Amino acid sequence: MPPIDSFIFIPAYNVESTLAATLERIRPAVWKRSRVLVIDDGSTDGTQKVFEEFRERTHEKNILRYIRFEKNQGYGAVVKKGIAEGIASGAKFVACLHGDGQYPGEQLGEFFAAMAIHDLALLQGSRMAIEGEAKDGGMPLHKRIGGAILTAIENLAFRQPLTDRHSGFLVYSTAFLKTLDLEKLSGSFDIDLEIIAKADAAGFPMAELPIPTHYGNEKSHLNVVTYGLRVLLQVVRRFFA
Fold first, then answer.
1. What is the C-alpha to C-alpha distance for residues 206 and 160, in angstroms, rounded to an integer?
2. What are the angstrom distances between the C-alpha of 174 and each of 93, 202, 220?
3. In 119-223, alpha helices (H)
4. Which of 150, 193, 217, 232 has its CA 20 to 30 A from that of 90?
5. Cα three-residue angle 127-129-134, rounded to 5 degrees
6. Domain of 20?
7. 3-state DSSP call for residue 64?
8. By C-alpha distance, which of 84, 111, 97, 89 is closest to 10?
9. In the chain, at which residue ranges do the beta strands (DSSP E only) sit?
10. Are 37 and 121 contacting, i.e. CB atoms less than 8 angstroms apart?
11. How many Cα atoms sit within 13 Å of 222 on the Cβ side?
12. Measured distance CA(39)–CA(36) in Å, rounded
């Protein structure tokens, strides 16, 4: 049996219609080397029931856990909890896989392999690396345009250019995560960008790999105006750092 070297946390908020499919997309080889934690951010639907039903029929009961925040605390709180649990697990790599089905859990093995081969601190999935992929995958026009503009601005501020700084499909090395002060990180959706910015500022190696885009009927809880302003604040901080 391969050693346990990977930890996957799954932010889950009202994802009863997508959670089981998200878990099923993780390849058997990845299950064998990982610990998986679903973090329910105060869901008001049947998310917990779906998890329990999935766990009952899976052969991976010993490596699949669930925790629940009784009140919704926001994406940043979930990410900080997931990172803390990942560090505590002793795994070499920590991955974030959203429970809404947007991101390709079947590619986690590829991402873990690239992390090990290239000794990366951070590897992000890019929906923009292949021209036309985001449009074909149903990403709304305003998100494609807004993301492209923000990414272009960010690439002026940061050392390492990326094509899609706003993808939430991320794998980290635990060694890098241990350098972060989790309490000081954002409690909102811009926490991913903040972590990337810290890695960039400290000169940690990072890269991206292409991923497919999938926009279904899931409901977004992101306020694009507030998020955009938070992104620009990160850029201003980087310019003056």
1. 8
2. 6, 15, 29
3. 133-136, 141-157, 174-177, 191-201
4. 193
5. 35
6. 6-240
7. strand
8. 97
9. 6-12, 34-41, 64-69, 93-96, 122-126, 170-173, 206-210
10. no
11. 17
12. 10
Tell whether 1 is covered by a domain.
Answer: no
Q: Does residue 91 belong to any structural domain of this protein?
A: yes
- Tokens 């058997």 belong to 28
**Cα–Cα distance for residue pair 160/184, rounded to 1 Å:** 23
Q: Tokens standing for 179?
A: 């350098």
Domain count, the chain: 1
The pLDDT tens digits along the chain (241 residues) read 567 899 999 999 999 999 999 999 999 999 999 999 999 999 999 999 999 999 998 866 678 999 999 999 999 999 999 999 999 999 999 999 999 999 999 999 999 999 999 999 999 999 987 777 777 778 778 778 887 888 888 888 888 889 998 899 999 999 999 999 999 998 888 899 899 989 998 999 999 999 998 776 555 556 666 766 766 777 677 666 6
Query: At a CB cut-off of 8 Å and minimum separation 6, what does 44 contact?
Result: 14
> Amino acid identity of 60?
E
Please give the single-letter amino acid code of residue 84: A
Asked, for residue 56, whether it belongs to a domain, the answer is yes
Tell me how crowded residue 214 is: count the other CB atoms within 10 A of its CB: 15
CATH number at residue 132: 3.90.550.10
Q: Is 227 inside any structural domain?
A: yes
Query: Is residue 128 within 8 Å of 164, Cβ to Cβ?
Result: yes
DSSP state of 202: T
Task: Give the Cα separation of 238 and 215 in Å (integer).
Answer: 31
